[in-house]
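Contributing new records

If you add data, match the layout below exactly. Sequence lines come first and carry their own label; structure lines follow with theirs. Keep one chain per record. Anything else will be rejected by the validation script.
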Amino acid sequence: MHKARLKKIEEKVINKVEDKIFALSAFDEIRPYYITKITFTDKILDKTILKLFPDFVRPNFLTVLRFISVPFIIFFLLNKNYDIGFWLFIASALTDAFDGAIARTRNMITDWGIIFDPFADKLLIGSISSILVFKFLNPILALAIIFLELILVATSYHRYRGKTVPAKTSGKAKMILQCIGISFVFLFLLTGNQFFLTIATYILYLAIIFAVLCLTIYKSI
């Protein structure tokens, strides 16, 4: 009896949170197929890692968690606790893959998630780049990453005027490359191997190319 009551209370709380905070209406019709399409990666995650996430876990919760993780990562980086900062960064970056996969495979896509998921990515990448890339790679490279992220947000808002704009393939590839590149900077800090910095530099320059593609061709954040 107690378990049944707790489950009902839990469902009510979750539904209220979704309705009051996360439910933003931007699509007047059924969501386009390219938003709801379950990818091959989604299927793999659904059969493996996503089984660890209970049904009450909403993808938007993971997006919020990514927002919350940023100041903690910054704190550890500023205090040169790179080992803790590295694992927090990896965990935070992985939530980007998990929240989208959960949303599509469990039919939990919301307009809030579509809008704020890329903003959480930009906050994560921009803040880390302003510290690690600026200090250990190249200040110009760091400024280029941050500048392009800001331009992507500004042009997206100007172009769509607040409408829901999901990230396209180029935007996702950019995020993945940025995370890999920053991870190699962390590996340099943890091992002292300069070769990791060289790899990080090339990967982050490649990420800039994809960022330019987002601006010029795919028009996606």
